[in-house]
Amino acid sequence: MAEIELRGVTKRWGAVTAVEPTDLRIDDGEFVAILGPSGCGKSTTLFMLAGIYAPTDGEIRFDGAVVNDVEARDRNVGIVFQSYALYPHMNARDNILFPLRFKPVSREEAGRKVEAIATLVQVHELLARKPSEMSGGQQQRVALARALIKEPQLLLLDEPLSNLDASLRLTMRGEIRRLQRELRVTTILVTHDQIEATTMADRIICMSKGRIEQIGTADVLYHQPDSLFVAGFIGSPPINLLAGIAAGRNLRVGEATLSLERSVDGKATLGVRPEALRLGERGVAGEIDDLEPHGRETIYHLRTPLGPLRALEPGEAARFRIGDTVKVDLGRALLFDEAGRRIADARPALAA
Amino acid sequence: MNPALAEPVPVRGVDDWALLAARARSRRRMREILLYAFMALGALPILIPYLWLVTVAFSGRTGASTFVLWRTLAVLLPALFLWSLLRLTLRPGRVLTAIEIALGVFTVALIALLSGPYLHLDNWRFLWNSNIADTIKGASGMGVKYPSVWTAFGNSLLLAGTQMLIVVSVATLAGYYLSRFDFRGRTGYLKGLLVLQAFPAMTLIIPIFLMLYWIGLLDTLAGVILVVAALELPFAIFVMKGFFDAVPWDIEMSAMTDGASRRQAFRLIVLPQVKGGMLAIAVFAFLRGWEEYVFVTTLLLSKSNWTMSLYLFWMRDDMMGTDYAMVSAMGVFYVLPSVVLYTFMQKYLTQMTLGGIKG
C-alpha cells in the first residue's frame, strides 16, 4: 500500500499530448476513480502509473520515492484490464499463480495464497478451468485474484466492469468495493461510467482532453461542478444547458430574463439539473412536448420561453399529459462564464 | 387504384403447399447429387494416378502395368458409387453404419481376391539392398555404384528438418518484432516481404550457384539448407506476423506488470498463443525441404549428397531399362512422410489461413 503522487506528469506521443502536466496526490488506502470520456488520457495515466508507458515529463512518486525509471515488473502494481487479459493457455489457478513465479515464494506458500485469494473473490470451484470456459464475471474475478495475490501496493482497474452485463456489473461494483475496504489497498479505477465512479470511489478525478477538470467527492462534482464539462458529463439524465447573455444583474435566456445576485457581463451558460426544476404553480409557462414514464419517475420534455428543458419528477404516475401547459420554476441553477468556468455566487433565478 | 391489387389472389389449398414442399425437397436432393457427382469427377484424375502408383509399387514386375489398377478400380468405383447412394438415401444411424461396414468389408475382400495373387514386395528391395544398381533386372548397371536409399532419406530428413528449424525460429522472432515494434522502414520491410514472394526463386539460380561456389558451400547440404530456408522465410515471417497481430497487447502488458521481463512475457505468455502458427509454418517448411528438387539438383553434385528427389530422378533416368515398378515403390516411400505429416497436422494447417489473413 502506498501513497501516490504525480508532479507535472505529462505524456506526449509525437506532436499529440495525451496527458497535460498533471499534479495529483492519492492517499494510502484511498479508492479513487478517474472519470472521463474515451480519449481523455485516463488510461494513459493508468499505464504510466503501472510502468507500461514512461511519462514524457514530470515525476511519479510511490511513498515519496520517484519511480519513473522503475520497470513495470518491479513496481508491485496489480492491474485488472478491461479485457481481463487472462492468459488463455493457463487455467485459473495458473493464471492466479503467475505473478508468484517471479517472487521468492515456496510452492506450499503459493498454494496457500491461491486458496486464500480464490476464497476471497469466490472462484474456488473454477480453479481448474481455462478462461475460455468461464463467463465474463468469473474471468473478472480471476483477474482480480491475479492482481491481488502479489499484495500490490497499488491496484489499478481499467474499465473493469464495462464488459459485464448490467446485473453482474451491480454485483461486481459492491464486490470490488468490499475487497478494497478489506484489503485497504490504494486503488485507482479508470472508467467512463459516472455511476461506477460515484458509487465506488472515495474521490473522483474528472478528466477531459488530457487535463484534470475537477477532483472531489461525487456530491461536490454533482452539485458544485467547476466547469461546464463536469456539469455536462455527470448526471443522468444530463443537465439542461441554455446559452444566454448577461448584462449587469440581468441574464437573458431565450425570451426570458433572469435575475442574478452579482453583476456578470457577456455570454454565459445557464445550467439546471432536471430534478431541480419545479412543475406547478410558479414560474414561466411551459408546454409539455413529450414525456418518458420510467416507473419510479417521469421525465418531461418542455417547451418554455427559456428554451427546451428536460424535467424529472419522482412519483409512480405522470401528473401531466402531452400538450398540457404548466408553470416551470428553476429551483437551484448554475451559471457558467464564456470560458466554461462556474460563477459560484451569481445564483440565477427567474425574475419575479 | 392499382390494377394489380384488384386481381384476385389465388387461394392455395393444403395440397398445394405439400406439392411445393415436395418440389423443394427434390430440388435440394438433386442439387446435392449433382454437387457430389461433380466433386467426385473432379477428384478422379487426381486420385487415380496415386492409386496407380500404389498398385504398381506392390504388384508391378519391371513395367508400369495397369492390370491391377483396373481390377482394383472395377471393384472400388462401384463400391464408392453404392456408398454415395446409401449416404443420399438413408438417414445417418445404426443401420447405415452397419451397411457401410459390411460394404467396406466386402469391397476389401473382393479387392484382395481379385488383386491379392499379384501382390509382392520385390519392388521394395531398394530398402535392404545397399547397391541397387546390381539388382536391376536386365540392366547394364555393372560397375555403377549407387548410395543406399537410406543415405538419401537421411539427407532429405536433414535438409528438411534443419531448414524447418531455421525457418520456424527466424520467422517467429522476426514476426514478433514486426508485429510489436515500430522502427524506421517497417512498412517498407513488410512490402518487401510481399514483393519477394512474387518473384520466382528460379530466376536467382545462377547467382545463388556462384555465391555458394565463392563461399565454399557448393555441393554441401548446408548450402542448400541456407538457400531453401532463405526463400521460404518471407512467407513464413508474414504468416507469423499475422499470428502475433492476433495476440492482444493486454496479456503481454499484464505479464510485465505481474513481474515478467519482456523476454519472459514473450516466452511464457505470447509464444503459447501462436503455437498453431509455428506448427503450420513448420509443416510447410518441412514439406518444402522434403520435396525440394530444383536447388538440390543444381547445387549438389556428389552422389553421397543425394536427397530423395535426386535419388528418384537418377533411378528413373540413369539406368538402362528403367525398372518402373521399383521407381513407383520409391515414389510411395518418398511421399509417405508427407502424407503422415499432413494427416496429423491438418488441424494446424487450416489455421494458417485464419492467422495469415489478419496480417
Labels describing this entry:
heterodimer; A: 352 residues; alpha+beta; 6-stranded mixed β-sheet; 19 strands; elongated; B: 359 residues; mainly alpha
List the helices and strands and how they pair.
The complex is a heterodimer of chains A (352) and B (359).
Chain A: E1 4-13, E2 16-26, E3 31-35, H1 42-50, E4 57-62, E5 65-66, E6 77-80, H2 92-97, H3 107-121, H4 136-148, E7 154-158, H5 166-183, E8 186-191, H6 194-200, E9 203-208, E10 211-216, H7 218-223, H8 228-233, E11 240-253, E12 256-272, E13 278-280, E14 284-293, E15 297-304, E16 307-314, E17 325-329, E18 333-336, E19 349-350
Parallel strand pairs in A: 3-8, 3-9, 6-7, 7-8
Antiparallel strand pairs in A: 1-2, 1-4, 4-5, 9-10, 11-12, 12-18, 12-19, 13-17, 14-15, 14-17, 15-16
Helix pairs in contact in A: 3-4
Chain B: H1 3-6, H2 14-59, H3 67-89, H4 94-115, H5 149-180, H6 186-198, H7 205-215, H8 221-245, H9 249-257, H10 262-273, H11 275-290, H12 294-299, H13 308-317, H14 324-358
Describe this structure in words.
The complex is a heterodimer of chains A (352) and B (359). Chain A is an alpha+beta fold and 352 residues long. Chain A contains 8 helices and 19 strands. In chain A, the strands form 4 sheets. Chain A has a 6-stranded mixed beta sheet, with helices on both faces. A 5-stranded antiparallel beta sheet of chain A has the order 13-17-14-15-16, with no helix packed on it. In chain A, helix 3 packs across helix 4. The C terminus of chain B is likely disordered. With 359 residues, chain B is mainly alpha-helical. The radius of gyration of chain B is 29 Å and the shape is flat. Chain B contains 14 helices and no strands. Classes of the chains: A alpha+beta (352), B mainly alpha (359). At the A-B interface, strand 6 of A face helix 9 and helix 10 of B.
